[in-house]
Structures are given as structure tokens and as C-alpha cells.
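Technical note accompanying the year-one report. For the benefit of new consortium partners, we illustrate the data format agreed upon in the data management plan: each record pairs a sequence with a C-alpha cell string. No post-processing was applied to the example shown here.
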Amino acid sequence: MNKFDYQTFSKKYSNSEQLKNRMVKIGIIDGELADNHRAFSKMNSIIKKAMVPVNKKEDTVHATSVLGVISQSSYNGSKYGFADPKYLDVYNASILSAGIAKPNDLLNAIEWCLENQVEIINISIAFNKFSEELLEVIKKGQKKNILFVISNGNFDTTKRDIQNIENVIFVGALDSNFKKSSMNSSNEANYYFPGTKIVAPSYGENEYSEVEGTTYSSAIATGLLATKLQKDLTFEITFNDLKEYLKSIEVINK
């Protein structure tokens, strides 16, 4: 694939409905999902918990588009996204309010996801400060075999203060030529996936739009990982297996 085409990429790596699957639980820490969007009509379940009193339209659009990349749906006769929605249980903790997330709300959201025994937590919100409390709850997730997929951030020059942790990966964006995008933060990501010309659900029940950003690169990674887990009928996949799977798909042109 010389130039990124989201529909082609989705088709190549999405979960075939002809394969046997198992249920996978994922956490989405973001805004509040518009769970009435038709893109999610086949979703096994969406459970929501509000961590903030006010959720703005842009927060809902952000979260809805993230899940719409992780999970398969159809728009104008084309399929987009990756994981089979019939085998997805989604736990949506909404912490965004007007695009801002507070550290304590993030902690509470992670704790809630851990309590519900998700396997992946997608955080398409860039943050660079990792308190002792946050590191402690992430390590608690490590003991529960929970992988954190975190956006590397757009145009951010703040240095990230975290060492490598086995169950945390940061995902940056590639442009349409599979080169590292100029939108990336100055922090190095663990993986890079396309973050441009991505078609995803938007506001309302039927709307879709073209989106871009490291937000969607991390959503692609989560979608790929969820498809891998859905095919893991023996429950034997390790963190390293998941990381190697991402590395087998990742293409970075110089």
C-alpha cells in the first residue's frame, strides 16, 4: 500500500464475520459517546459513566468518532473500522468537558474500567504528567492484564515524564504517505499509524465526517488489538503478543 486509503486498510485488517470470535471488553476514556448513532446499532453493549457534570458537543463528537474507528460500521456502502461490534462490550467513562480532562477524573475513570475488567483502555487524550497515583493505578491494570493505548498528542512540546511500562503504549500519527506526520508531539511514540483522511461517525444519529489526529491513530491501534483479542479463543495472548502484532502491521516510510 503506497498511499494510505482508510477503506482499504479497514478491509484488510478488520475482523471477518466468518471467523469464530469471543467477546472483548474495552474501555474508552474520552467524552460521552452518542450511543444512539447508527454506527453502533450492532454493538453488543455500551455502558456509560459520567465523571464530569457537563459534556459538550465537541466532547461527544470526539468520543463517538473514536469508537467508530475502533469498531466496524458501514457508510455509503463502504465498511470502516476494525473490531466486530457484536463481540464488543464498551465501557465509556466520560471525563472531557469542553476538551479539558482533569487528572482526578482520569484516575476515577481508570479505576472504573479496572473494576469492570476491560482488556484494553483507549485514551485518545494526550497527557504528559504521570503522578504517583496515576502510575499506581496503571500498574494495578498491569496485574489485571489490561493494556493502555494512549494518544501521543498533537503539536505538543511538553516532555512526557514516564518510563517504559509493559502495559502502556503511546501511538503517534502517520500522514497519507506513511511518514511521521508533522502534527505529532515532540515525544517519541511506541507505534505510528495513519492519522489522516479517516472516515468516522460524527454528531447526530447518521452523520459521518473525515477526521485526523493522533486521536485516531491510537483508535486504529485499539481497533487492531481488539480484533486480535476477538480471535483469541484460548485467552492466552500476552502483552508482547499484542505489541508484536502491532509491529507486524506498522509501516513507516522515511
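Partners are asked to follow this layout when depositing records. The two ends are 15 Å apart (CA to CA).
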